[in-house]
Amino acid sequence: MSKYRITVDGKTYEMDVELIGANGAVVQPVAKAAPAVSATVAAPAASKPAVASSGSVTAPMPGTILKVLKADGDAVKAGDVVLILEAMKMENEITAPADGVIGSLSLTEGSTVAGGDLLFEVK
Amino acid sequence: MDSIWQNGIDRLNARREQVAAAGGADRIAKQHSSGKLTARERMEALFDDGTFVELNDQISSRCSDFGMDKKKKPGDGVVTGYGYIHGRVAFASSQDFTVGGGSLGEAQAKKICQAMDKAMVMKAPFISINDSGGARIEEGIDSLTGYADIFYRNTIASGVIPQISVIMGPCAGGACYSPAITDYIFMTDYAQMYITGPAVVKSVTGEEITSSALGGAAVHSAASGVAHFVYPDDLSCLNGVRQLLGYLPQSNADLSLEVPGTAVDNSAALADIVLADSKKAYDVRNVINSIVDAGSFFEVQEAFARNIVVGFARLDGETIGVIANQALYMAGSLEINASDKASRFIRFCDCFNIPLLTLVDVPAFLPGSQQEHGGIIRHGAKLLYAYSEATVPKVSLIMRKAYGGAYIAMNSKGTGADMVYAWPIAEIAVMGGSGAVSIIGKKAIEAAEDPAAKREELLNEYNEKFMNPYIAAEHGYVDEVILPEETRSKIAGAFQMLKSKDRELPYKKHGNIPL
User: Fold this and answer.
1) Cα–Cα distance measured from residue A24 to residue B71, given in angstroms and rounded to the nearest whole number
2) Fold for domain B267-431+468-500?
């Protein structure tokens, strides 16, 4: 059993990981979860919103672009703030879903967007 | 031993071996090479070590059409039985893809139904592991009726025992509706669920799509909201089922397992997590983790409708359900999917005697034609209905914004909250300041010599008067305004006090929740 530390959305989890035999025919499961509180954090963290890893980022809701922090061609890491969408009385940080290069970002500060509009792509 | 005994024993052993051999070594190897466990291995992984007991291993199909009597179907494509999870009994079925592709016929359905019936009599959870090509076509409508028998039992058992579906392979067509009726759906990355598969989609609509893009785990966890939990493989997934059951009672007549936790009070950190500038976002999961027992928060539907966070946690060892607006996504506003997600979670908790903690920071229901045309009235109503109907202890903490209809929808005093707390930075009002001033101060601003100054003056007056928790407290809508560092102890104290809560709805067959 090895210990791994993973960070998801800035939160750090510790996981116990055991290697399963190459044939996959493991009947004995890895340490069965007791209902103990310490065991309960690790697993759900593994289920990331996989859809978000696609390249296009769309507006989650209608609003106004308050700040554009990156430009086409900029390299970004997953989680980097690309722009700030002011909507519903809040400054909503729109982040890169994956590592890559920004493309199709034509918005400027003050632009208004509708929910579902393409904001930028990460390639 | 005489020869009659010997013959009888030999015959039984042969039949047992045949069932244990399932679909044969080749098909089992194929199952393993695709990263999956077999039906029985899954049972072993689900239950406490060595506790699984198989039932009805000899049930088999009576069908003789299309040469079906010549094809051996050991176990008829499903393994059923019971075992113990955290020492408590639970029943389960596990479809065997190595036997006839796990296809469901009359006998398989009968086997599953017998296990479900036992779960109901024993008032124990039922777990259904799905890995099946679908209906056994050779058995015609007897196969379809088999599904109906399962759907019917799922429905009757709903709210009586926890029902969990685990999708670990294909689950197509009518087979999707048993999981859909149950309380929670787990999927592995190998699983797919759809009503009509890619081939039919292509022939009918011309759309070309892969099975995982149509109904894979990523789709159902983030886009459709059908799946509640996703795991990379069988073992981690079944471990997840065990974790979930650790929070739940055996039935609606039972209380949840109490698990002593580390009662760390991190309330002092709360004022640094929730920023007083209400334009700034923060991750509400950090608030939850600072209040509940260390590491006990188990999020449900993490990737779907992220503007609301729901999940189970423990407070002083006892299970609670947490519902929290997530400022980090869509400013925490309520919309169609968030309303559906939270309502279903609230109703589950109410079915199973799990108290509710609601953390409020909500600007509004999301405006726009998309929402109106999608039926936000109908969907948002579910949230009000679910909170009002729930008779379990209900505690709210208004952290920051609580505006308008969304404030009322988030477990407000008027809809039956038992205890409502608010922090001193809470803003409990009909709407935010600038919107309000544009309406109530319209004429005064237009008439003023300096409209901007007038607007500023009215805004300050509005904010000073309304953007605080004290009017709500003076009028009794907030029970107490509390300091952040008092948060955990106040909430834990409220749930302790509410243990003897005794509230019943008037007699009815059932209510008519807007669907």
Assistant:
1) 28
2) 2-enoyl-CoA Hydratase; Chain A, domain 1 (3.90.226)
Q: Looking at chain B, which residues constitute the CATH 3.90.226.10 domain(s)?
A: 3-245, 267-431+468-500
Shortest Cα–Cα distance, A113 to chain B (Å): 12
pLDDT in tens, B279-320: 999 999 999 999 999 999 999 999 999 999 999 999 999 999
Min CA distance, B274 vs chain A (Å)?
14
Q: Are A82 and A98 in the same domain?
A: yes
Total number of domains in chain A: 2
Find, in chain B, the residue whose alpha carbon is nearest to that of A41. B295
Cα three-residue angle A112-A118-A119, rounded to 5 degrees: 65
Residues A32 and A59 in one domain: no
A81 to A57, A78, B326, B411: CA distances (angstroms): 12, 9, 18, 33
| B404 in catalytic set | no
Instruction: Yes or no: say if B201 and B218 are a contact pair by the CB < 8 Å rule.
Output: no
DSSP string, B458-512: HHHHHHHHHSSSHHHHHTTSSSEE--GGGHHHHHHHHHHHGGG----PPP-S---
The pLDDT tens digits for B466-483 are: 999 999 999 999 999 999
What's the CATH number of domain B3-245, 3.90.226.10, 3.40.50.1370, 3.40.50.300, 3.10.129.10? 3.90.226.10
| pLDDT > 60? residue A45 | no
Q: What is the mean pLDDT of chain A?
A: 74
Across the interface, of B44, B86, B222, the residue whose CB is closest to A27 is B44
pLDDT at A46 over 60: no
Query: Is A77 found in the same domain as A114?
Result: yes
Domain residues for the domain of A14 are 2-45
Chain A residues within an 8 Å CB radius of B273 = none
Q: Residue A74: CB partners within 8 Å, gap ≥ 6?
A: A101, A102
Determine whether B294 is an active site residue.
Answer: no
Flag if B230 and A47 touch (Cβ within 8 Å).
Answer: yes
Bridge partners, A103 (sequence order) = A121
Pair type for strands B480-481 and B308-315:
unpaired
| Residue recorded with tokens 């609606």 | B252
User: In the structure, what pLDDT confidence band is assigned to residue B407 with cuts at 50, 70 and 90?
Assistant: very high
End-to-end alpha carbon distance in chain A: 37
* B405 catalytic per annotation: yes
CB B123 within 8 A of CB B89: no
Chain A residues close to B36, C-beta within 8 Å: 24
Query: Are the beta carbons of B45 and A27 separated by less than 8 Å?
Result: yes
pLDDT higher than threshold 60 for residue B172: yes
pTM (2 decimals)? Answer: 0.89
B173 given a catalytic annotation: yes
